[in-house]
Amino acid sequence: MAEAKLKVEHLSKIFEKKGRKGREVTALSDISLEVAESEFVVIVGPSGCGKSTLLNIIGGLEETTEGTVTIDGRTVTEPGADRGMVFQGYSLFPWLNVQKNVEFGMKMQKVPAKERQEKALEMIDLVGLKGFAQALPGQLSGGMKQRVAIARTLAADPKVLLMDEPFGALDAQTRVVMQELLADVSRKMKTTVLFITHDIDEAILLGSRIYVMSRRPGTIREVLPVKLSGERNHSILTDPEFLRLKARIMEMLWQESQDAALGR
Questions:
Q1: Model confidence over 106-137: pLDDT tens digits?
Q2: Could you read off the pLDDT of 64-84 as tens digits, one per residue?
Q3: Cα 110 off chain centre by
Q4: Residue 262, burial from CB neighbour count under 10 angstroms (0-12, 13-18, 19+)
Q5: What is the average per-residue pLDDT within 18-41?
Q6: Residue 188 β-bridge partners
Q7: Are 224 and 210 in contact, with CB atoms under 8 Å apart?
Q8: Which of 83, 79, 84, 104 is nearest to 93 (CA)?
């Protein structure tokens, strides 16, 4: 694998329960992972295993208890323009049109008006929203709103794109369309992506590698390379290698659920 763009080393996170002084909960334990330049890495795991907590730490929104996160060798201690984050909620400004929403991050970075307008229109076209630059968010469907959120994040040119269940609120058909769009856009832009999902099909369709996490306290149970030929679209859902990987991940997650139910 190429040199890591993003590196997480021996990261642990312990929360103190509110109202119970001295009562601690270990959310993450000794997490280490890497994402190379232009690689698309996916994390899957049981509900409550700490996936979102991990992404928030990488994004600089949470502090780590132990361990380090680095981007290009620089330690992450707070939010920064080198990381773009896309969540399940669209977080668009309802009073700004699509173009102005996409321009917003660049405006905060003090990019000249003409340059940010050109870049915004380029990103809007890239995510398949040509002709909607002047539309307000209230006039858009859920899938279209998420396209705007992705365009806005990519327009700010982050070194790493962090995505936390970005398609979780979409209907099944729209979700597949968005998965294919993201696969295509990330390939064209050579984007470095760390993507969290609970959807196994989504993980395999998008990822070049998949980190499978255990139940809480979250640890890395296994790292699986995804070796699929051809375009990353719905046609690979019946590929024998796709089905083999899906069965393997399902078995691991089922075992985690069984162990939790039996207190093992």
A1: 998 899 999 999 999 999 999 999 999 999 99
A2: 999 999 999 999 989 998 999
A3: 26
A4: exposed
A5: 87
A6: none
A7: yes
A8: 104
Beta bridge partners of 13: 28
Residue 1: pLDDT over 60: no
Count CB atoms within 10 A of the CB of residue 24: 11
Residue 3 has pLDDT above 80, yes or no: no
Q: Give the chain's length.
A: 264
DSSP the chain: -PPEEEEEEEEEEEEEPTT-TT-EEEEEEEEEEEEETT-EEEEE--TTSSHHHHHHHHTTSS--SEEEEEETTEEP-S--TTEEEE-SS----TTS-HHHHHHHHHHHTT--HHHHHHHHHHHHHHTT-TT-TT--GGGS-HHHHHHHHHHHHHHT--SEEEEESTTTTS-HHHHHHHHHHHHHHHHHHT--EEEE-S-HHHHHHH-SEEEEEPSSSB-EEEEEE----S-SSGGGGG-HHHHHHHHHHHHHHHHHHHHHHTT-
Enumerate residues 6+ apart whose C-beta is below 8 A from 252: 212, 221, 222
Residue 16: half-sphere exposure toward Cβ, Cα within 13 Å: 6
Q: Could you check whether the bond before residue 217 is cis, i.e. omega within 30 degrees of 0?
A: yes
CB-CB contact of 234 with 208 (8 Å): no
| CA distance linking residue 40 with residue 179, whole number of Å | 12
| Amino acid letter for position 246 | K
Give the whole-angstrom CA distance, residue 140 versus residue 80. Answer: 29
